[in-house]
């Protein structure tokens, strides 16, 4: 008999259900008795003891279903050691729930913040398996996270649609792609969608270079330009500011996001009409793509094997096409960023894509 707890935490994405299904199928096929406790709304469910006993039936037919059947919420890591408004010690409460249910292990699906809390619980003596979820693809220790490829299809589709209207109107279009700290999604969507300019947080941009690239296209007889701009794109000047100064500047700005600021600067300097499209949370919605379904089935199967072997304290990642167990303590708190001199960026530059640097 195995008693497994499961929760999904942080921003949702496609394939969370597919990953949970993979784990449960892997266990169910190899065990006579299995109890699965699903905690609602991420760590909240574990803290406040809000859970439901699930059966393998609950995980049937959810491979293609977006979102998460368990619900999710953001519970920032930095507040985990801070008591709640009623003075409750959250870490102690999570441990209490775990021990009360006599769990063999907790399977935690989430991104960077979630992973840090998962590691904290491991340090507190709980048996943890983490599965790397995020459309941002920024989890250290795995080549790819689930959600990324599905979101990439959506973001690319948006740029594709913008292409036809941009060309008809001879306009400059900005598509703002999710990614506050890292630019994997805007980089890949920009290349896949044929964007002419890609701005990502890892490469602070110079607006003069952006304008230069647009003017060059006009001179070459290309009437429209498409920019894929990360939510977290940052100008060279702003990159020099301290965290505090940047926060103060953002408070003052009249622009809803960086794309609108870039749009205003381009319009002013080139006289071109500029339009901004923000697909936002659409990028996290809908069914997982085929790639993510395969990935999650593999990650889930590997996680099930670790649980059967009672080998805990790992994230299951995908490295060079192989699923691998990666010690949580080695990866928690690290961010996988785009390297500005990586091959993809070098080659994108060869084909004329401007990164504003
Ligand atoms: O971490 C995933 C992500 O979608 C980021 O790309 C984005 O910046 C953020 O979450 C949005 O968060 P929220 O759903 O809390 O608005």
From TrEMBL:
Species, as recorded: Eubacterium ramulus ATCC 29099
Protein residues bound to substrate: 134-136, 171, 178-180, 231, 275, 281-284
Listed PANTHER family: ATP-DEPENDENT 6-PHOSPHOFRUCTOKINASE 3, PHOSPHOFRUCTOKINASE
Phosphofructokinase domain sequence ranges: 3-307
Cellular component per GO, a single term: 6-phosphofructokinase complex
GO BP: canonical glycolysis; fructose 1,6-bisphosphate metabolic process; fructose 6-phosphate metabolic process
UniProt binding sites for ATP: 11, 74-75, 111-114
Enzyme type, top EC level: transferase
Named cofactor requirement(s): Mg(2+)
Family: Belongs to the phosphofructokinase type A (PFKA) family. Mixed-substrate PFK group III subfamily.
Protein name: ATP-dependent 6-phosphofructokinase
Sites annotated Important for substrate specificity: 113
Gene: pfkA
């Amino acid at each position: 008999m195995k008693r497994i707890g499961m929760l999904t935490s942080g921003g949702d994405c496609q394939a969370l259900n597919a990953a949970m299904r993979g784990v449960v199928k892997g266990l169910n096929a190899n065990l006579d008795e299995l109890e699965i406790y699903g905690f609602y709304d991420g760590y909240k469910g574990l803290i406040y003891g809000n859970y439901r006993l699930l059966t393998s039936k609950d995980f049937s037919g959810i491979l293609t279903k977006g979102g998460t059947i368990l619900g999710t919420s953001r519970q920032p890591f930095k507040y985990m050691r801070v008591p709640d408004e009623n003075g409750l010690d959250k870490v102690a409460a999570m441990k209490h729930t775990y021990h009360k249910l006599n769990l063999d292990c907790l399977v935690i699906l989430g991104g960077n913040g979630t992973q840090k809390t998962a590691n904290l619980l491991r340090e507190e003596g709980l048996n943890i398996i983490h599965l790397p979820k995020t459309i941002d693809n920024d989890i250290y220790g795995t080549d790819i996270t689930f959600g990324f490829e599905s979101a990439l299809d959506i973001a690319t589709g948006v740029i594709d649609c913008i292409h036809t209207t941009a060309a008809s109107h001879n306009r400059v279009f900005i598509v703002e792609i999710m990614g506050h700290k890292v630019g994997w999604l805007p980089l890949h969507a920009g290349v896949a969608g044929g964007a002419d300019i890609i701005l990502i947080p890892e490469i602070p941009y110079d607006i003069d270079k952006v304008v230069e690239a647009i003017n060059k296209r006009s001179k070459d007889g290309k009437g429209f330009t498409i920019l894929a701009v990360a939510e977290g794109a940052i100008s060279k000047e702003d990159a020099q500011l301290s965290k505090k100064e940047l926060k103060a500047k953002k408070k003052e700005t009249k622009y809803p996001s960086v794309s609108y600021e870039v749009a205003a600067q381009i319009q002013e300097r080139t006289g071109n009409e500029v339009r901004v499209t923000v697909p936002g949370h659409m990028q996290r919605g809908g069914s997982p793509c085929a790639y993510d379904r395969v990935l999650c089935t593999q990650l889930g199967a590997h996680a099930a094997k670790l649980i059967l072997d009672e080998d805990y304290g790992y994230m299951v990642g995908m490295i060079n096409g192989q699923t691998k167990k990666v010690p949580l303590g080695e990866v928690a708190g690290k961010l996988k960023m785009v390297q500005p001199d990586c091959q993809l960026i070098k080659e994108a530059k060869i084909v004329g894509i401007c990164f504003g640097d």
